[in-house]
Amino acid sequence: MTSLSEDLLRSFDPSTLAVNEACLLPKVVYTSDDFYDFERDAIFGHEWLCVGRADQVPEPGDYITTQIADEPLLLVRDKEGVIRVLSAVCQHRGMVVAEGSGHCTKFTCPYHHWIYGLDGRLLGAPAMERAVGFEKSRYPLPSLKVEIWQGFVFCNFDPDAEPLAPRLSELEPLLENFQLADATTIAGKTLTDLPWNWKVMMENFNDPYHASRLHDPLQTFAPSGMSDFFEWREGIGHISRIQHFVHMDGSFNPTMKCLMPVFPKLTDEERSRGMFILIPPTLALAVVPDEVAYFTIYPDHANSIRIEIGYCFDPAAIKAPLFKELFAAAEAGVDNFNVQDVYANRMTQRGLRSRFAPRGRYSWQEATLPQLNQWLVERYRRYWPVNDSVTES
Q1: Which residues of the chain are modeled with pLDDT < 70?
Q2: Residue 249, φ and ψ in degrees, nearest 5
Q3: 252: closest CA among 295, 222, 285?
Q4: Cβ contact 84:156 at 8 Å
Q5: What are the start-end ranges of the H helices in 266-322?
Q6: What DSSP element (H or E) covers 175?
Q7: Per-residue b/e over 122-147, b at no fewer than 16 CB within 10 Å?
Q8: Contact at 8 Å (CB) between 68 and 333?
Q9: In angstroms, rounded to a whole number, what is the distance separating the alpha carbons of residues 320 and 316?
Q10: What is the pLDDT of residue 48?
């Protein structure tokens, strides 16, 4: 039996209304492995997925690995300096050819020593000369479509996917003075085995309603009621808001002020606000005047995710005296928020598995949440299967 009934599809409609009329999506979309299997294709099989930053692979041969929705991937810069995203799955028996990060001139599968170039071409396959009709050119590592936006590397399993950048065009002027394409990336923590759905994470990240409540008194510099929301339109590729501060140079640490040098081209107005940006389904950006903290969100299954945290700074900030000490303090400040959010997300997922889980109503301070619903439901409808099974919890 499948949860993907026509009744369930129709039940999404109230979640896509304007914020003061809308309600939460049905609990099944957060808790069902069956529904997550549908999302693996409908969402993660067709949308642009963030796999890192371009400056994490600065030289030919540099690579990092990741896994998104059970797909092991390689982010690599090839010999010509082109950034590629390749499947990390050996085309012989399915062994993963690389883990972690590093530098190499080729990828050698540790199992049977099939050798692949940095562009994915199969260069060597020992003892395959007797295989009838075997041609190395037919067995490269699969290559994904790639797009780089603001220094972030995105890939797409769908070779016919429309470009990402046009769907993010209204963010360009708001991010221009941060010069993120040239920013320096510092890797932060990786949080694994987090027991909640990927959408719970995205909702929490861009929900200002909880900021003055869950995060009090850490976030009094950015109160819940001081957000500007973007107007939603079909086809948009982000869910974002501008967060105004009560003073200039607010930031996420106990001083509530910037610890690092601010991005030098920012105007006074830009130094008096931040932004929270979702580029679903994998990237979340928290933008403040001295840093851009980013969270890449990778689902393991319906009730578990992994988050990789990184930070972007103006290149001159890295050379500032005591940068390492200041960064440690800034990262600890972000951790203070993460501890509270981890607790809230864990307990929300627990509640969503209850028979009493609500389809709750939204506050006007949660305008980003029905917008995320609209983004999701647009894709659910596009890829909804035709079937005769009817069961919905």
Answers
A1: 1, 387-393
A2: 60, 45
A3: 222
A4: no
A5: 315-318
A6: helix 172-175
A7: beebeeeeeeeeeeeeebbbebbbbb
A8: no
A9: 7
A10: 98
Q: What size, in residues, is the chain?
A: 393
List the domains of the chain with CATH numbers: 6-45+165-383 (3.90.380.10), 49-149 (2.102.10.10)
* CB-based burial, 252-265: b 16+ in 10 Å, e otherwise: bbeebebbbbbbee
pLDDT tens for each residue of 12-70: 999 999 999 999 999 999 999 999 999 999 999 999 999 999 999 999 999 999 999 99
114-120 long-range CB contacts below 8 Å, 24 or more apart? 114/90, 114/139, 116/86, 116/90, 116/140, 116/141, 117/78, 117/79, 118/60, 118/61, 118/63, 118/76, 118/77, 118/78, 118/79, 118/84, 119/78, 119/79, 119/82, 119/84, 119/143, 120/84, 120/86
Q: How far apart are CA 60 and CA 67, in angstroms?
A: 22
- Distant-in-sequence, close-in-space partners of 116: CB < 8 Å, separation ≥ 6: 86, 90, 97, 106, 107, 108, 109, 122, 123, 140, 141
C-alpha 141/C-alpha 122 separation (Å) is: 7
Q: How far is CA 348 from CA 33, 354, 375, in A?
A: 17, 10, 21
Rounded to an integer, what distance in angstroms lies between the CA atom of residue 351 and that of residue 130?
58
Contact 256, 221 (CB under 8 A): yes
Tell me if the pTM is above 0.85: yes
**Mean confidence (pLDDT) of the chain:** 95
Q: Which helix (H) or strand (E) holds 345?
A: helix 323-352
- Compute φ and ψ for 358, nearest 5 degrees: -90, 165
